[in-house]
Amino acid sequence: MANHGQPSEPTPMPHCLAVPFPTQGHINPILEFSKRLIPKGIRVTLLLTPFISKSISARDRTRISALEIGLETIADGHDEEGCPTGVGAQRFDAYVRTFREIGSKALARLVQRMADSGESVHCIIYDSIIPWCLDVAKEFGILTADFFTQSCAVDAIYYGVREGKVPVGETTGYNFGVIPGLPALERRDLPTLLHDCGPDPDPFGLILGQFSNAEQADWVLCNSVLEVEQEELSWLSNFLPFTTVGPTIPLPYLNNQHDNDDTDLHGLSIFKPFNESTCANWLETKPKHSVVYVSFGSIAGLAADQMEELFWGLRNSNHYFLWVVRQSEESKLPKESELSAAAAAERGLIVRWCSQLEVLASEAVGCFVTHCGWNSTLEGLSLGVPMVAVPQWSDQPTNAKYVKDVWRVGVRVVEGGGGESGAVVGREEIERCLREVMEGESGEEIRRNSEKWKNVIREAAGEGGSSGSNVGDFAASLISKSR
Ligand code: UDX
């Protein structure tokens, strides 16, 4: 019926619940993806577990609310300590089971409560490692976007193993000729959670379970970039409609236009204290490309002797270094006297947590010593920072392989890697890698490659680029399906 000049009812904005797996490396990408949806006319409410919710600062809350993102909590049965940190697949698996049991009921109650109060949910965007979110969404007849946090290469390996398309075992070797683009992998390059592949699927519940119902999702999104993993993505797309929407890094960082505007800051920080200004002030005094930035992300724990070797490798390289050592890791640092000697020489700064993107975007930083968590890898690649890969567990060895041999933006330590139980990487090896990346012809070539990938990714993320268009298409399709 014509409305004869009456103002028409505005179409309500689609409302999404964004449900990350509750660790730093999984919250950041879903939050950053959500931030991109807001200007496209989508409302988002972020769900955090009680532990994460109480860990974030008042400043983060203010930022989230300034971005007009809603915040709600979802119970996981671990109010006091949250998801376990430190390397260990079994502990994760146990946590994941509890979260599924308690979280799915809590999610259903929340969706119902929102519907009752006129805040109906149109879509749940959830981390692929908590596929039970899809089951809850289906109960309510709402849309689902399955968000894969890790790389297409790693997703392709997991998918291929689950579906029996990719052989894994001592006898078959690890050259997955099946997945185009994927380089020949040695055992040390595989995601560590596959090492014990046997008849009992339990250790793989977390990772292979990602594909248990993925084909029912309305969208399958991946925090990667088409140009970065084109063939792997194209292979996966034969089976599931994988769509790349990464990197989930605020555009001002990619465009070298970031400032300290609060709403542009990246992710949420669940670790304290946050030494942002200390880092910025220290970095400001250092020459271009002179600083080695060291971080092992939010989960990995190094053995004390590994911390000592790392410290001496950094020290002996004679480069400046900025090293993130989480509070829970501090007791493993070498003796105080040695550290203060380094500090006195103004060579090294050790902080408990920082704004990693601010640091990586600083001109002073010449190299990133990283555990190769997928976020860190993509952040280093996107900001053109050469890397020294010291992978610990999970997807990190495979990401390290790409850093060294596929994108050629860094080197990987020859021995060791492998977390608390793994072999220690010696100080000489660390020093050798730092020299290779920071100095000489090899360093120059790595820097040229890094610059190349930085430009490729900046293009892809912008309006009209592969990821930029995919984000726009997702928003448009969500708006149209929500009517
Ligand atoms: C985990 C897994 O280890 C990783 O392999 C997987 O792909 C995602 O989940 P995490 O180990 O924490 O994540 O590493 P990473 O993926 O690199 O994520 C860490 C995040 O914390 C990054 O976004 C990084 O920018 C941020 N960070 C790290 C800071 O903001 N400040 C710091 O001081 C250190």
TrEMBL record:
Pathway: Pigment biosynthesis; anthocyanin biosynthesis
Keyword set includes Cytoplasm: no
Protein's recorded name: Glycosyltransferase
EC number assigned by the record: 2.4.1.-
Top-rank taxon, per record: Eukaryota
Reactions catalysed, as given in the entry: an anthocyanidin + UDP-alpha-D-glucose + H(+) = an anthocyanidin 3-O-beta-D-glucoside + UDP
Organism: Linum trigynum
One Pfam family here: UDPGT
